Amino acid sequence: MQKSPITLVKERFKNKEGLVSAVKALATDDLWLERLNTGKGLPHVSNKKLLHLHDVLSQVKKEHGSRAKLIDAILASEKRAKDAGYRSALDKKSTPELFQVLSAGKKRNKAAKA
After folding, report:
1. Domain containing 113: what range?
2. 32 and 78 together in one domain
3. Do 47 and 85 belong to one domain?
């Protein structure tokens, strides 16, 4: 059975404040577009969403280093490296959306080869 988000937070970060600080540490200008509600901020986001955000930002930082390199990887996998319009559309998407686009593209390419 899958563990609840609060259990995962307690196991990995001890409490929600630890998780929020870990996400803030990863949310640098290289990986993050600042789109938070200034009145609420990260402490008011659900544990499940924060865990997902932390996992995605960690993986992107480890595999690509920055949003720009993630966008380059998407363009390369879809063979659209010279498409400036597509690049500008990708620039507007959040990092988790970009990561999902890359994952879907990899699955599509893998299925096409098989």
Report:
1. 66-114
2. no
3. no
Query: DSSP letter at 44?
Result: G
- Whole-angstrom distance, CA of residue 50 vs CA of residue 43: 9
Rounded distance, CA 83 to CA 79, Å?
9
Residue 87 CA: distances (Å) to CA of 29, 59, 82, 95, 103: 18, 21, 8, 14, 17
**End-to-end CA distance of the chain, in Å?**
33
Give the position of tokens 């990708």: 90
HSE-CB for 8 with a 13 A CA cutoff:
15
| Beta-carbon-side half-sphere exposure of residue 62 (alpha carbons within 13 Å) | 6
Could you tell me the pLDDT band of residue 63, with boundaries at 50, 70 and 90?
very high
pLDDT band at 30 (very low <50, low <70, confident <90, very high): confident
Per-residue buried b or exposed e for 79-105, using 16+ beta carbons within 10 Å of the residue's own CB: eeeeeeeebeebeebebeebbebbeeb
Segments in the chain forming alpha helices (H): 5-13, 16-26, 47-63, 67-77, 84-91, 95-113
